[in-house]
Amino acid sequence: MDFRKVQLPREIHTGAGIIESTGSICKDLMFKGNVLVVSGPNTLKIGGEKVIESLQNEGFSVQTLVIDKASEDSVLKIQNHADNISVILGVGGGKVIDSAKLASTRKGLQFISVPTAASHDGIASPRASIRNEKGSVSLEAQAPIGVIADTEIISKAPFKFLAAGCGDIVSNYTAVLDWKLAYRLLNEYYSDSASALSLMSAKVTLEKVDAIKEGHTESAAAVVKGLISSGMAISIAGTSRPASGSEHKFSHALDLIAPKPALHGEQCGVGTIMMMYLHGGDWEFIRDALKTLKAPTTASELGMKPEYIIEALIMAHTIRKDRYTILGDRGLTREAAEELASVTGVI
Question: What pTM did the predictor assign?
Answer without folding.
Answer: 0.92
